[in-house]
Automatic annotation (TrEMBL):
Protein name per UniProt: Uncharacterized protein
Keyword Membrane belongs to the record: yes
Record-level GO cellular component terms: Golgi apparatus; membrane; mitochondrion
Transmembrane segments: 26-46
Domain of life, per lineage: Eukaryota
Keywords: Golgi apparatus, Membrane, Mitochondrion, Transmembrane, Transmembrane helix
Amino acid sequence: MDNVNSAGNNTQTTTRNIFDLEWTGINLLLVLIYGFITVLLVAIFAKRMIHRVSLKFSHSVEVEGSGANKSLKLEIRTRMEEAINFAYEPTLLNPGDDRLNMDVKPGHFYFVNRMKTVDGFRNIDQVLGDLNKDLYRPKGKNVRQHLFDAKSHSSGCLRAVRTNQLQALADFYLQARFGTEPYHFEDHLKFLDVEAEIVAILRQRTHRKRTKDKRKELHRQNAATVEVQSTSVDDVEVTLKSNLSPLGGSSTQPLLEGVVHNASTESV
């Protein structure tokens, strides 16, 4: 009991000694610094936890350049606007590629059918570009929108093509390029059938246009030849008249009139 009482007395004495200490300026400053650091760390930890939870449950789209200063944000937006014009559509299967002639088995190599369809759409682009330079499809432009714009173009190149044909062509292309379902070889054959019908109509129009242009050029050449010939005949007549000297009568009479005048005088 004496030991317990002595231990309790020592504890009370130690506590009393702590509170009885004189708080000097350095001790008070250290306590304030440690307390500020502790509060700051707790605030940072709480903020990070709140931010993580809010990001986990928020689905808002972050704007480009958010959180950056004004100059950096302007630079980011400028680069993003320039990046829109960067587009490249490579040829997926070159003419010498072995995959063009491979037998695609059902359930395997669906990507080959997709690549064939995507490359096959270039025939439409080429024929439309041959008809009118304004109908070249810009890289990255939506295929369906481009076909409808070409159909409503003032040149009328796709006027003879039905709207459902253009819809089917765009559907096959978009399914081959962006679709998630398997793209079978039969789908590629259907695409080729629709494409062949449209290309045949466009090539027929191209042939008519070239024939019409040749006729116009031929008429223009014939008109130029006739004009040159008439001009040369007029030049010859003017040259002959200027070279004829008067014979008898007035000095302004040509040779033929002079001969007639002399013949009439002799007969009298």
